[in-house]
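Researcher: Re-running this chain for the archive, since the previous output was lost when a drive failed. Same request as before.
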Amino acid sequence: MPMIGEVSMKVSPVNIAIIVLVLFLLGLIMFFTIKKGRKIKKEREIRRFNELVQTFIESEEIPVSLKDEELHYIFVNLAMEEFYGISSEELIGRDDFEILEEKLAMKERKTDKKVLETKTFVTDEMLWRGKIFKTTKFPVDLLNGKFGVGAYIRSVSEKNREKYLKTLMSIGDGVMIVDPMGRVEMLNNTAEKMTGWTVLEAMGRHYSQVFVLEDDKESGIVPDPIEEAFKDNTMKELESHVVLVSRDEKRYHLEESVAPISDDEGNIDGAIIIFRDVTEKKERRAAIEYNSFHDTLTGLYNRRFFEEELIRLDTERNLPLSVIIGDVDGLKLTNDIFGHEAGDELIKKVSEIFKKVCRADDIIARWGGDEFAILLPQTEKKDAQQISDRIKNNFSKEKIKSIQGNVSLGVATKYAVEEDIETIISSAENNMYMKKTLDKGKKKEDAFNIILDKLYGEFPAEAEHSRKTSEICKKIARKMNLPEAEINKVSKAAYLHDIGKVALDKEVASKNEYTVDETYKEMKMHPVVGYRILNAFDHTVDLANIVLGHHERWDGTGYPQGLKGKETPKLSRIIAVGERFDDMTTDKDYRKAIDPMAALEEMKRNVGTHYDPEVVEALEKVILEENRYSNKISR
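Model: Regenerated structure tokens:
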């Protein structure tokens, strides 16, 4: 129950007198008790004195107690027995957690510890049986080198009751007070907001009209905590699944407690209801609980939940128990080419297909980054295989960007109780990897061709540009007297030099890649993407570094690495010249082509800054030779 908090204390003369008296008497009690334990001769006198002290303390109306250093009761007077309704025999040797409700016991423990830690007086307020009491606690030297906690309790005066009523009106928790007939007497500001009723509208109405509770789990009737508090004359708390429905249909999850209010003669005089909106807290807790068992990207169960369900379902009644292990092909390639958003889209797409194909009772989990696992209770292997085939067939119809959907799946089934389920899991994994290996070559080749088809399908001019760049680079390499293997390599790399543009927006990829504007940064990524693509396939991995460097410049001002001079691979430097020459001598949407000799002169002006002098010299030989050949033909 939300409790009234700790307050600072200004010790009044009356309080000082009480504390001094209690300290004196408790000190004497402890002193003579210890002396008695040591068998002091004046036992009769001590006993007579203790009887006098006990008679004095027990005649007081103020409840007094003493706890030892471990906060167990070692003394209570008659008033304290009556206050708790427990005899001293039952109290001595016990702590607050054994006699009080947990929330109140925790509150008392907190102030007790503060007394022991600070060796100072601490005052507090407690709501006990519908009334507010002030407790005063103080350190007591137990004469054994340790300290205990002394305490006395006094009821709050009428003047202070008004003060506490004002406090209740302004606190952040909702507070409602009802009379013995259940009619509303008071709502504080928070209660007005949460119920949707003003105090004037609510006063005199039965609380059930104002304080409307529903079961959030729809499991039945909500127990009425106010009615139960009246019936048992004890504090009651709401179940955690109860919600308050306001006048305007807003719903609040509550933490709530109800305590009956008694008059001076112990008769029930009403009840106080203190409640708090814990909707956000409950939603956060639910989200944490959900995320602890679910994959945040796909909404499927995670590996932790799968493994717990595996233990739960690994029983005879669930046999045959089938397992499907799946691995999504092309996730790394998708991430490398199109970014992680596209990779996430691929994972989400296959997850949707798993959910679409599988049955309601099947446990589908994201096992790892690109791996999934499905647990199918009471499922024959042939049925599990049919589900696996449907998943594969459905996913093969999907395409993320230019990446064809493909998933490798392995199936295994447990038929006998004595079979180890972990062995079944391993068998399904092995079957999956075997299929993945068998499909790997063909699927990779298909994926590469699909990427090229997408590039040249969306940008038809790129196909011609790639072909012509490949031809001119091969001629330049021959003029540089490179080995035939290097000539073939530069020809292949030149044909694929712009493959990274497949990841660019169509508008960006169609622009002049030498124009610096707001899209230039995106354009500069295409050599990097090209490198990633070529590095992902065995038959092009040796071309990856060449393509990566085809936009580097001789003076180090190129991209993406800013390499200078011969730091850039020679074949990359050839492609830089070859592709630029073809670019200038080909008609574009944004300009006309220029004459090959004019293009050569332009490139010669950039020798030593943009281009390798040796490569431009070789290009010049190629052009001059072709011009002489053309002149001979024309004559």
